[in-house]
Amino acid sequence: MSDLVALVTGGTKGIGKAIARSLAKKGIRVYMNFAADAQAAETALGELKAEGMSAAVMQADVSDQEQVNTMIGTIVQNEGRLDILVNNAGIIKDGLLMLMPDRNWHKVIEVNLNSVYYCSKSVLRPMIGSKWGRIINIISPSALMGRAGQTNYAASKGGVLSLTRSLAREVGRYNITVNAVSPGVIATELTKEMDEKIREEFISMIPAGRFGTPEEVAHAVSFLASDEAGYITGEYISVDGGLT
Amino acid sequence: METAALVEELKALIIKNLKLEDITPEDIDASAPLFGSGLGLDSIDALELVVGLEKTYGIRIPDEDVGKEAFASVHALADYVIRSTK
After folding, report:
1. Facing residues of A177 across strands?
2. How does pLDDT run across A133-185, given as a tens digit for each residue?
3. Residue B19's pLDDT is what?
4. Residues A158-161: contacts with CB within 8 Å, 24+ apart?
5. Distance in Å, alpha carbon of B44 to nearest chain A alpha carbon
6. d(CA B50, CA A172)
7. Engineering a disulfide at A79: which of A5, A19, A191, A226 sits with its beta carbon 3.0 to 4.6 angstroms away?
8. pLDDT of A1 above 60
9. A62 and A69 Cβ atoms separated by less than 8 Å
10. Number of residue pairs across A and B with CB atoms under 8 Å?
11. What is the end-to-end Cα distance of chain A in Å, rounded?
């Protein structure tokens, strides 16, 4: 068991939930943030607790700086520390740029990029105070290669990757690492509903010949969060079956 | 302009604009969706059509919300052009 405390944004579903579970499995006390779906949050919390893990849920819209500061302030007040931040919350609003409703540009930047700024800014004081910290940002192959219909999403994730590299240089001295993980196509509720033809098309682009699992992404995050990964910073790990 | 005449004009414009050389106006079902099925056009083809329509009729298709409505079919497009030029 450790006395570390982690916060996973968007942590009650899909990849975020798998990350929360894999950190909690190591004895880390995990706060799972969610935006709106209280029922999914209750379910996730119940699951982790049933497995004997130390977990809690926190409602906050991570694209709202005030809500972020309140959430992180509460955790630090409760625990006296916050050691690991996983910026996982994200949305997509795909569409071609020429015809993109302006709100779809702004919303994706707010939720995917601004949130990383707000959360990272808020955790740095406690992390620098304890001279140890791990920030892990979930990005996407769209940050690494072009994809038509995803200019907003790609810009947000590319922004997060650049932030990752620069922030790593600001806080390296304090034993804080800042890294990113880039999941490829991961099997979730969404891929289950995928059209058979589109599924085949996607799989044909993936050298591994299959979709990834949330647990495979979580494993990379858990590794970067470990003490042993302390000399890795400003980097990204692709967990995409060779896609990029 | 009368809707029926406009529908024919739009079909010709679509064929010319998107260089659909193997397709005649009769091949285009005026009540079928323009994109995603039927003609086999994708959303990137739509960009050129938007620019062509805006130039020809002095209308504006500002974003995909309007685009989806306007491109639901040639009939829908004709309605949109008529409404926008009134």
Report:
1. A134
2. 999 999 999 999 998 999 999 999 999 999 999 999 999 999 999 999 999 99
3. 86
4. A159/A109, A159/A113, A160/A87, A160/A112, A160/A113, A160/A116, A161/A137, A161/A236
5. 8
6. 50
7. A5
8. no
9. no
10. 24
11. 36
B53: CB partners within 8 A, 6+ apart: B13, B59, B61, B77, B81
Residue A18 has pLDDT above 60, yes or no: yes
Q: Residues 15 to 74 of B: which have CB under 8 A from any A CB? A: 43-44, 46-47, 50, 61-65, 67
pTM: 0.90
Angstrom distance (rounded) from CA B2 to CA A173: 73
Interval B45-77: pLDDT, tens: 888 899 999 999 999 999 988 988 999 999 999
Q: Which CATH number describes the domain made up of A5-239?
A: 3.40.50.720
Query: A96 at the B interface (CB within 8 A)?
Result: yes
Q: Catalytic: A153?
A: yes
Task: State the CATH class of domain B3-85.
Answer: mainly alpha
* Cα–Cα distance, A39 to A34 (Å, whole number): 10
Give the three-state DSSP class for A186: strand
Regarding an ipTM greater than 0.95, the answer is: no
